[in-house]
Amino acid sequence: MISVEFSDLPLIQLPEELKRVLSYWQGIRQDRLAPTWTEFDMMEIPSSLLPMTMVKDVEAEPHVYRYRFYGSGFARLNQRDLTGKTTDDVAVTAFARALRISLDEFVEKREPRFYDVKFVDEHRFETGQRLFRLPLSDDGKTINHIASIVFKHYDIDRYHELIEEEKNSSPRDTDGI
After folding, report:
1. What is the pLDDT of residues 49-58, one digit of tens each?
2. H helix or E strand, kind and range, residue 150
């Protein structure tokens, strides 16, 4: 069984490409909680990062997170386009739990976050990624969309091995993350 760990990193550690995205987000946010989905122009994300970008819609309590946009890099990585699916529908069990906790916390905190995400097996072999999230709010009160960008995967082959191990050990039908 794998575990998934989300660790906060300071925004000052954002790579330059993501600092530019944060600056763009801050500029359109102005003095509000967050910009709206319609204001957020995905073309402002560097083209090299768009394949590993996703946008989730935050549906009513208890929150359901539905993929509105699922970048082509994620579709290749997971061998499936998850646009329109929810995180609960398609994630391996361990990732679904950790992802829900992380997303619920993100919605509660209501601010940009940068994470180191680790996927760890029972032998403590791990791989991971760096993940940047931005909140979006259509009503100025609640976070109802989340833009996420994975900046770096540490070891794609190890990621696939961990997912396959989880699929083979779990009774749940798993289609990727």
Report:
1. 999 999 999 9
2. strand 145-153
Cβ 106 vs Cβ 99: under 8 Å: no
pLDDT, tens digit (0-9, with 9 covering 90-100), for 68-104: 999 988 877 777 788 999 888 765 677 778 888 999 9
Residues 6+ apart with CB under 8 A from 75: 81, 82
DSSP string, 65-121: EEEEEE-HHHHHHHTS--TT-BHHHHS-HHHHHHHHHHHHHHHHHTS-EEEEEEEE-
Helix or strand or coil: residue 134?
strand
Q: Taking the model in full, what pTM does it have?
A: 0.85
Counting residues of the chain whose pLDDT is more than 90, the rounded percentage is 56
Provide φ and ψ at 35, rounded to 5°: -70, 165
Domain ranges of the chain: 3-168
CATH, domain range 3-168: 3.30.450.20
